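hiii, so i know i said id send this last week but things got crazy w the move. better late than never?? heres the sequnce for the chain we talked about at the cafe, plus the structure i predicted for it. fair warning i was half asleep when i ran it
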Amino acid sequence: PAYLDWVGSMIFHNLCSVIIAMNLILMGLELGCSACPNHDFYKELDICFLAFYVSELSLHLLYHQSSFLIGPLARVWWNWLDLAIVASGLVEQFIIPLLGGGIQFNASSLRALRLLRVFRIARAAKALKHTWNSNLSWAEGHAFEMFMMGVISGIIHCSTMLDYPVPAWAWLENIFLALYSFELFVRLHSNGLRYFYGQDWAWNNLDFVIVALGMLEQWMVTTQLSCSGSCASRVPLSEFQLYLSALGRLLRNIKPLHRLLTFMLLYAASIVFTTLVGKGFIYEDYDAPESAKILYGSVFRTFLSLFKLMNDDQSMVEPIIGTVGGQLLFYGFMCMSNWMML
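okay and structure toks below
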């Protein structure tokens, strides 16, 4: 119908993309705060998002009619996924609570509930679909490239995250990782599979691996551990991953920085040693001895300790050489430092 032409417009398409992105952020906050007092508020917001999805799906069904679900598989399978996501959301929000008080859940019922959770997470695929079909030419211009260079340069301060831990850093890490992920998505959208084997293939593959590992560690493993209450045993290397990605991008785009490679790699090693040694992660009880805290308690002190180690001061390894993790760190750093001096 002509009066529904606005449903196919780019404005409505972009509005849907923004709301889906907001819903994904809400889901992440809800998973990380399953026991907090605002949990009921998150549920109410989720119902509002579900109402929007039902409205969006209904409008598309009215606008496209039978062609919305019938046609070439490459075109309609996204629409069937939308239908499954909305249906699973309705079952999870309304049907299960109505039946939950009077039925006993068996193994098959629990598997069905897990399937509903999978469809809920599949909203991320819905967001990818909207973004993939959007006009991303603005993200390939010089202005966006300069913005990303500013973001990448800013992550060099990540030693502050280790030396002065505050809750705000977790938000900043997620913002940086989200920007890196979006930039990677734009490059994949623009270049396709050539991204992995074309020009700068080595840097591109390094970017892909680092960002993928960061997403796994920050958005999947961390969330799962926070829900199970076992965050204390997590090794927080996201700062190092962000720094390594920033270092690679800066070296690729600013050639004179190659002369500072030794300093930058020593700085990267300082972040790793501070995280694993100064925070006690290489020790069985996760409690670093006082001698280790003195030498590796902050990135600045670690930088000085590693610089002394490069100049053959073997006393710098006494607090770590008694552990397997410390020995591996020592061997790895000596190999890297010898390579840096070549």
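btw The longest helix spans residues 73-100. thought thatd interest u
miss u guys!!
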